């Protein structure tokens, strides 16, 4: 049967000062009235019943995660003892599914995306699941890039694999803007992290290619998650598996995917006013264009500004620019410790 | 004897959202730890003992005004029943002094200025007082302009009157920038509102030239302030007296006068950091220049911005630009009534 593994352990600082270690991005209602996690689970329910949806998070976020998806069975929240990147998390989720269902196929995704076309998303996910089952490969869904993002990984497709998929020629991580332009021109795809595999194939590939995680497989077989995490080393499934195996394939999708990487990204994923502004909360804009204003603990008035981000939350007002918003980590590093510390590690 | 009349009735919105009808500009610590009113009184005490300093304010501000200048005798706070511009206020203060001292000379000033050179200020004030007494004229102190301000009135000096003063050729109110440049080039002075006159001459001039106020003089003679205010019509002493009489003179001063007309003006009157920013309260600036940041009810972080004004007070954050800050009234008119209403009329 088909299962979903939703990665929801992020503790990032990209949405400071709203986001905190206790209320990270995926639990925020960034795209609308519901949390990104809630939207992510809702998006896959037509493919996978909630009983087979697993959500991987951290121990600190276990309660908040359950609260964000009340329909989820309690046992389906997998709370990691510590973060070790995506390969250990997905190894646990895959083993959890396999223990209940030896024929399990897994769709893995992140809790903190937005998707403009959920039907297109599900169509691509079905292609990936079908391919994983029929061609016995691990599958990644690449999306057609719409701008030369320098913060993403790119997948260069190789030879055809059936009618719907391609082998993977190579991965390119975080290219320069010029290189990103060239990659898009040659048909490279953004590597999203939407994956599919059978539990059987995934385990075999991890055992062969990913010693960082393979060291924990025996403990995992015994159901001893603490011992498994004590044995693994952090590694992403991209680097630890996809870049090492040849039993991988890519399917292309086009469904308005966005990883909502910064406050400025809200201008892509939320409705803007006639002047291109995103306004959330008690905020009033006058003669201002292309701004993002989020005001959740008071009133914000923005007058005569272009392309600024203003966020008011938790007793803090942040004023920065769309250009600088993606690099909040750099800003937080330059603020006094107690202030920056609130943004999480 | 010499008296001072300090006009402290302002209820302006130029320092919204910090300023309110109950806490207007002159009661704010805009130039440093003390209120502008406190600084104004302190500045004249070497010339006039506190027993002869009168402060004219509104009834609503009477208590706050006393609290801001605790050394002032209670009877020296003159609380107007309503605002009627400067001529009625100064007629009352002048009559109040004359009732105690028939030989009174009055120095009149505003509570909401800053003065970089208090010694120079007092020297100019002494020149004006001497001239008022010796030449029996009403005297205005004009300051040498340092920029082509379009929001000020200008005084064009005429023929000499003794060694230190000039007659007034004409007044020019709020010129265009081009006209202001030309006025400065021909030696015109900013009309500050720093005046001097004997009580006797002032009353005679008002009786002759200022019917708007003369209608209330009889009531004022009886000490019936309510009847006086009921009889007068609002008029400024500039328009109602100086522009109408020929018994006027101007002395020139140069003492770093500033009327602190907007948040942006704080960059002139307060110390700036190496990047030209004024930072007051719990605020942190990174890679930002020429900003004014005032944060009194929480933390403000400004990142990568030039020439912006950010003010956090009373549950409101204002973000605007140095260029637009002088015209907050225009902004408030475009905000929802309850929000804008907090800024006072």
**Rounded average pLDDT of chain A:** 95
CATH class category name of the largest domain in chain A: Alpha Beta
Give the SSE string of chain A. Answer: EHEHEHEEHEEEHEHHHHHEEHEEEEHH
Helix content of chain A: 25-40%
* Helix/strand structural class of chain A: alpha/beta
CATH architecture call of the largest domain in chain A? Alpha-Beta Complex
**Tally the helices of chain A: what do you get?**
13
The CATH superfamily title of the largest domain in chain A: Spore Coat Polysaccharide Biosynthesis Protein SpsA, Chain A
Oligomer: homodimer
Strand content of chain A: 25-35%
Radius of gyration of chain A: 20 Å
- Unreliable stretches covering 5 or more consecutive residues of chain A: none
CATH topology of the largest domain in chain A: Spore Coat Polysaccharide Biosynthesis Protein SpsA, Chain A
How far the N terminus sits from the C terminus of chain A, by CA atoms, comes to: 37 Å
How many structural domains does the protein architecture of chain A include? 2
Specify which chain pair forms the largest interface.
Answer: A-B, 29 and 29 residues
- The geometry of chain A reads as globular
Strand segment count of chain A: 15
Give a short account of the largest sheet of chain A. 9 strands, mixed
Label this structure with key terms:
homodimer, about 30% helix, about 30% strand, Spore Coat Polysaccharide Biosynthesis Protein SpsA, Chain A, alpha/beta, 4-stranded mixed β-sheet, about 350 residues
What does this structure look like?
Two copies of one chain form a homodimer. The first copy, chain A, is an alpha/beta fold and 345 residues long. Chain A is globular. Chain A has 13 helices and 15 strands. The first copy, chain A, has two domains: 2-258, Spore Coat Polysaccharide Biosynthesis Protein SpsA, Chain A; 263-341, no CATH class. The mean pLDDT of chain A is 95. Helix content of chain A is 31%, strand content 29%. In chain A, the strands form three sheets. In chain A, strands 1, 2, 3, 4, 6, 7, 8, 9 and 10 form a nine-stranded mixed beta sheet that branches. The interface between A and B is medium-sized, with 29 and 29 residues. β13 of chain A pairs parallel with β15 of chain B, so a sheet runs across the interface.
């Amino acid at each position: 049967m088909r299962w979903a593994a939703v990665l929801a352990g992020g503790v990032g600082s990209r949405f400071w000062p709203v986001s905190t270690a206790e209320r990270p991005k995926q639990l925020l209602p960034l795209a609308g009235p519901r949390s990104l996690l809630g939207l992510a689970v809702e998006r896959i329910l037509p493919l996978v019943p909630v009983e087979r949806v697993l959500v991987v998070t951290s121990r600190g976020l276990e309660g908040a995660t359950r609260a964000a998806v009340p329909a989820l069975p309690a046992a389906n929240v997998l709370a990691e003892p510590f973060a070790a990147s995506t390969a250990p998390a997905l190894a646990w989720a895959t083993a959890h599914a396999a223990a209940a269902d030896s024929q399990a196929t897994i769709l893995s995704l992140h809790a903190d995306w937005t998707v403009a076309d959920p039907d297109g998303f599900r169509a691509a996910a079905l292609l990936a699941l079908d391919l994983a089952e029929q061609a016995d490969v691990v599958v990644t869904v690449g999306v057609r890039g719409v701008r030369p993002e320098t913060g993403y990984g790119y997948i260069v497709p190789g030879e055809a694999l059936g009618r719907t998929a391609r082998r993977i020629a190579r991965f390119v991580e975080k290219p320069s803007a010029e290189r990103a332009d060239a990659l898009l021109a040659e048909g490279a795809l953004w590597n999203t992290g939407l994956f599919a595999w059978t539990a059987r194939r995934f385990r075999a590939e991890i055992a062969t290619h990913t010693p960082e995680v393979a060291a924990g497989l025996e403990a995992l077989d015994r159901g001893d998650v603490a011992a498994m995490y004590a044995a693994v080393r952090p590694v992403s499934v991209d680097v630890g598996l996809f870049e090492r195996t040849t039993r991988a394939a890519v399917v292309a999708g086009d469904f308005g995917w966005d990883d909502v990487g910064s406050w400025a990204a809200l201008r892509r994923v939320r409705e803007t006013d006639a002047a291109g502004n995103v306004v959330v909360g008690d905020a009033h804009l006058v003669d201002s264009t292309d701004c993002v204003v989020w005001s959740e603990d008071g009133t914000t008035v923005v007058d005569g500004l272009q392309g600024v981000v203003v966020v008011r939350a938790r007793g803090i007002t942040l004023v920065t620019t769309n250009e600088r918003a993606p690099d909040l980590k750099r800003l937080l590093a330059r603020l006094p410790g107690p202030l920056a510390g609130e943004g999480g590690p």
